[in-house]
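Agenda item 2: magnesium ion complex prediction
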Amino acid sequence: MASLLDKFKRGLAKTKSGLFDEIVNLVQNQYVVDDDFLERVEEILIASDIGVETSLAIVDDLKEHVNRAGFNQSGELIDFLKSRLAARLLENTGEKQAPHDFFVPDVKPFVIMVVGVNGAGKTTTIAKLAKGFQTHGKKVLLAAADTFRAAASEQLEIWAQRVNAAIVKTQHGGDPAAIAFDASKAALARDVDVLIVDTAGRLHTKANLMEELKKIERVLGKAIPGSPQEVMLILDASTGQNAIVQARQFKAAVGVTSVAVTKLDGTAKGGMVLAIGHELNLPIRFVGLGEAVDDLKPFEAQTFVEALFE
Ligand SMILES: Nc1nc2c(ncn2[C@@H]2O[C@H](COP(=O)(O)OP(=O)(O)OP(=O)(O)O)[C@@H](O)[C@H]2O)c(=O)[nH]1
Ligand SMILES: [Mg+2]
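Presented output:
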């Protein structure tokens, strides 16, 4: 079986060629670390969806290290950069799980409300999560609380059948909060370990969507006190810095507790993962490295950075 590092490497190939290879090239072509060199590194980082704020902070780290350690050979820079990026990611994403572990909840029923803009990968990620939890011996129930888009429940239902998970749904146009409530009651009655609630990504206005999500969150808490234990925000890596803007809006509306970053495999914008850590300070639980049900991997800061440079 391919290691997590191999999978990260394959998934991050485009990000790597877009950004980190440029840094490696720069290092190979310019041997001496001077102001010009650091400026060029800063430009490369900023152009790579890491975000201005995060890039500046990283270059400040570099400058400080150059002054303190007095090193002037660019070759030394890569190792320092790697270790700083990994340390920053670890610090900011508050990685909770032990390396290589699929996150397994300890409360029962554990309710995960999944939010994000349309097309971000919510429904697909829910199917992948369901499969992962089942593999760890957990009984999973899905709630189709996206009643806005006509085909949304059917889509979740197809996935539910594929991964063999139970689902609570209603017809198109039903009240999403009512489904969330019914699903919570069903989770208690059926001795379910993990309830995963799918939500809409698109409503007439963003304000409507946020109000609907708040209502679902409230209703879940009434049906099962303390729930949702997790509000997982799904961010599409290929939207780069826009994902950070969206994340702020979701964070302001509902109590987002974690992030899953999807579609890292198809984009050169994987640097945005560093901005999530630096600018949002939310744990990244999972990354999506492909469309198949087994392509959701636990996020590991060290492995992520490793894969970008190897
Ligand atoms: N390559 C790749 N594709 C992904 C990944 N995750 C999701 N997708 C694809 O992204 C598309 C949208 O995924 P959905 O799960 O339907 O997104 P959604 O957020 O539920 O969308 P709405 O229901 O419209 O709000 C699908 O074609 C998925 O196969 C990933 O990690 N990698
Ligand atoms: Mg969906």
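Discussion summary: The radius of gyration is 21 Å.
Owner for follow-up: CH.
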